[in-house]
Design brief:
Blueprint lengths: L19 H18 L15 H9 L3 H37 L12 H4 L1 H20 L9 H34 L4 H26 L4 H5 L3 H10 L1 H16 L7 E3 L4 E7 L3 E5 L5 E5 H5 L4 E2 L5 E10 L7 H14 L12 E8 L2 E11 L3 H21 L10 E4 L10
Antiparallel strand pairs: 1-2, 1-5, 2-3, 3-4, 6-8, 6-9, 7-8
Helix pairs in contact: 1-3, 3-5, 5-6, 6-7, 7-10, 12-13
Keywords: Membrane, Transmembrane, Transmembrane helix
InterPro entries: LSM_dom_sf, MscS_beta-dom_sf, MscS_channel_2nd, MscS_channel_TM-2
Membrane topology: Multi-pass membrane protein
């Protein structure tokens, strides 16, 4: 076949030629094709006429160019075939694994298996290999300043992304399976998923940095005044991050719980690695640093089987003769109330707590079944109203200065009351 396009002005650059077996096979194929096909076409016919001028001239100017061209076509065809068969290969691995284990799996088993998770990452790995190989071959033809080391770095970068992609997909399938098996532990699994995601991002980023020559170990080892300054500046961030990790692991509360501490109170809307978002009773959001949460005593009302209700009525001293009757009736009221929990906590009780010049302190105490904050408020309202009706119907009167004191379990008035 004759060359009609001029390539004399283009410098000679060797084409990558290191696949000996493929070279011999490609050379034999190109020779046989040339011998059998060439007589069928005119003498000036050029089968590579469709290739751009510069690449066309380069191929014709390099020895064994036809063999190299055929070789790359063979490699591309094999890679394309493998790319198209990745799905069937993964399904075969899945069925072969089940056959060895003598297990009959449901039809949806493959969709939730590790073999399905590796489909797309395998395709990505094949694509990265083929693109970098093609770049290695055609780079000299287009006079691209690409060294073999640069191509290998790009290939390694692509492999790291493919492997990280597979690990994330596999992690997602495992998380989905664990949550389906134990729905109650979902918050713990989600927290573990976040921690693993951060760890995987760190490992992938470190590997990419090492591939491109950035030694993260040397960066982390920087000392002196600058290291101390960075350490002090990041103290709060690191503290909040570690506290967030502990919150995810120990799980003193989860999203949706109603919690109370010295500096905050409300429903937990979100738990982050640095801050947690609390929605107060008036729907005002508050971002609380995780390190502050770990340093406080937290009461989680959502996990309680029941909530303690304590109240003190201050009666007049002259009503002392009516106290016994009032206490018995209120105790009977608490014992028969549908929202009072008789199984958990202390038994319902009403008794004379103390006597003083200010009046008689009559205290009632019971446990309310836990059905949420608003249900607790409603039950408390109903119990206190009926207790007050018992006091007044018995002929007693409240002390006008301080009629009722509401107490929580620790003796302080809770803000939600």
């Amino acid at each position: 076949m004759q060359l009609k396009k001029d390539g004399n002005n283009l410098p000679s650059v060797p084409i990558e030629d290191d696949d000996h077996f493929l070279d011999d096979l490609s050379h034999w194929i190109s020779k046989k094709v040339s011998e059998n096909v060439r007589p069928l076409f005119p003498e000036d016919f050029d089968i590579l006429n469709w290739i751009p001028d510069k690449l066309h001239s380069r191929i014709h100017s390099v020895e064994r160019a036809a063999a190299v061209f055929v070789r790359e076509c063979l490699v591309l065809a094999v890679v394309a075939l493998l790319f198209a068969r990745v799905g069937k290969f993964c399904r075969w691995l899945s069925s072969h694994s089940n056959a060895q284990n003598n297990k009959k799996q449901p039809e949806t088993y493959y969709e939730d298996s590790v073999y399905h998770a590796m489909e797309d990452p395998l395709r990505a790995g094949l694509l990265v290999w083929q693109l970098t190989r093609s770049l290695k071959i055609i780079g000299p033809l287009f006079k691209l300043n690409l060294t073999p080391l640069m191509v290998e770095k790009v290939r390694s970068f692509g492999y790291i992304i493919s492997i990280t992609w597979f690990l994330f997909k596999w992690k997602g399938l495992i998380l989905k399976h664990l949550i389906s098996e134990n729905e109650e532990e979902k918050p713990r699994f989600v927290a573990l998923d976040k921690i693993l995601s951060l760890l995987m991002y760190y490992v992938a980023g470190t590997c990419m940095g090492e591939v491109f020559g950035y030694a993260f170990r040397s960066v982390l080892a920087i000392g002196g005044i600058s290291g101390i300054a960075v350490g002090f500046a990041s103290k709060e961030i690191v503290g909040n991050f570690l506290a967030g990790a502990l919150l995810f692991i120990t799980r003193p509360f989860v999203i949706g719980d109603y919690v109370k501490a010295k500096s905050f109170e409300g429903h937990v809307q979100d738990i982050g690695f640095l801050y947690s978002k609390i929605i107060g009773f008036d729907q005002s959001p508050a971002r609380v640093p995780n390190s502050s949460i770990m340093n406080e005593i937290i009461v989680n009302y959502s996990r309680a089987k029941c909530r303690q209700l304590s109240a003190v009525f201050l009666l007049r001293n002259e009503d002392i003769v009516l106290v016994d009757k009032i206490a018995n009736e209120i105790t009977d009221l608490l014992s028969k109330h549908e929202r009072v929990d008789l199984k958990n906590g202390r038994p319902p009780l009403c008794y004379l707590k103390s006597m003083s010049p200010e009046g008689l302190e009559l205290e009632l105490s019971c446990c309310i079944k836990h059905k949420g904050l608003f249900a607790f408020q409603k039950a408390k309202h109903d119990i206190l109203i009926k207790a007050a009706q018992i006091v007044t119907s018995s002929g007693a009167c409240f002390e006008s200065n301080v009629p009722v004191l509401l107490l929580s379990g620790n003796g302080k008035s809770p803000s939600e009351t």
